[in-house]
Structure to design on (78 residues):
């Protein structure tokens, strides 16, 4: 979970994200707030990005988010 604004700029997440993906790690980014850098979240997780206006909203939607994470991870395994 992030506001999508890495201290020092997006370049700091590009290579680590590529490295993790090359190892087979599946990532999902949850952007929280009204001023999220969706481009940066895309570097991290591709199309697996969920936007939320607040942490309270994340908690309200937690069950659905967990289901999405589980289904996405299991779909890749099977």
């Amino acid at each position: 979970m992030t506001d999508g604004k890495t201290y020092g700029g997006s370049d700091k997440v590009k290579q680590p994200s590529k490295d993790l993906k090359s190892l087979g790690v599946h990532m999902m980014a949850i952007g929280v707030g009204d001023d999220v850098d969706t481009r940066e979240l895309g570097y991290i997780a591709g199309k697996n990005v969920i936007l939320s206006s607040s942490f309270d909203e994340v908690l309200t939607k937690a069950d659905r988010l967990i289901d999405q994470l589980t289904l996405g991870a299991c779909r890749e395994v099977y």
Summary: The first helix runs from residue 11 to 22. The CA atoms of residues 65 and 71 lie 10 Å apart. The first strand starts at residue 29 and ends at 32.
